[in-house]
From TrEMBL:
GO molecular function terms listed in the Swiss-Prot or TrEMBL record: phosphoprotein phosphatase activity
Listed Pfam families: Y_phosphatase3 (PF13350)
Descriptive protein name: Protein tyrosine phosphatase
Coiled coil: none
Family: Belongs to the protein-tyrosine phosphatase family.
Superkingdom to which the source organism belongs: Bacteria
């Protein structure tokens, strides 16, 4: 199956099925989509998504972004507002402590998001909705504006939780650079002159390997292990993690 779905009116829309896990399973197809802006979906695109089984749309954008570029609505899926920003600020302090002068813009921002109380609350809701997406032939789409940063963090958290290797997680993240190589859409649509400047700068900054590794570094530093982070920060204990793996992975790749 195709990983990049070139649907009209969607930005950076991608299938997360097919990735192998360390447990010898594979992420199921037709369960998880990651995307950027979906405010301009056409009738043809909606028909595709209906057939795909879309039931849940999780919107990580700010309230202002959601007002200015409202998601296309439909009767076959429900949209859940789940803004990652504004952060409370405690994540900035924690990220600063462990970086001690080594500065990578995206890496620092990403660390702040996963360590911040509000950022954690946003991804906690995301994981909770993923647990509700447990019916056959139903799927969940999560997105922000560019489908790179807030969505990228959501993707790395769920892929890591499901047991996907760090190298594959990084490759999935870096696919965004390919999507935007020759595309000016991001300049025209995603930069809100009155919006959050951190978000605007992130949208225009290419993804890099260090950004992903810095997230795992921050989580391990403060939580000891990724599993402990899932439990303490996102309320995903061993039972819920097993449930997620049951919903989203299979031993049959087809």
């Amino acid at each position: 199956m195709k990983r990049i779905l070139n649907l009209e009116g969607a930005i950076n829309l991608r299938e997360l099925g097919g990735y192998p896990t360390k447990d010898g399973t594979t992420i199921k197809y037709n369960k998880l989509l990651r995307s950027g802006d979906i405010s301009n979906l056409t009738g043809k695109s909606l028909a595709y998504l209906k057939k795909y089984g879309l039931k849940y749309v999780v919107d990580f954008r700010s309230n202002d972004e959601q007002r200015n570029w409202a998601d296309t609505t439909s009767d076959f899926y429900k949209i859940y507002s789940d803004p990652v920003y504004p952060l409370k600020g405690n994540g900035d302090k924690l990220a600063g402590i462990i970086n001690q002068g080594s500065y990578n813009y995206l890496g620092m921002i990403y660390q702040s998001v996963v360590l911040d109380a509000h950022g954690q609350q946003a991804y906690k809701l995301f994981f909770d909705l993923m647990l509700h997406n447990d019916k056959p032939d139903q799927s969940l789409l999560f997105h922000c504006a560019a489908g790179k940063d807030r969505t990228g963090i959501g993707a790395l958290l769920i892929l890591k939780a499901l047991g996907v290797d760090d190298e594959i997680i990084t490759k999935d993240y870096l696919l965004t650079n390919l999507m935007y190589e020759n595309d000016q859409t991001i300049e025209d649509i995603l930069n809100d002159k009155d919006g959050n400047q951190d978000v605007n700068q992130m949208n225009m900054t290419k993804g890099d390997l260090e950004s992903i590794t810095s997230v795992f570094k921050a989580i391990e530093h403060y939580y000891g292990s990724f599993e402990n982070y899932l439990d303490k920060a996102l309320d995903i204990d061993a039972d819920k993690l097993a449930q997620l793996k049951s919903i989203y992975t299979t031993r049959d790749a087809k």
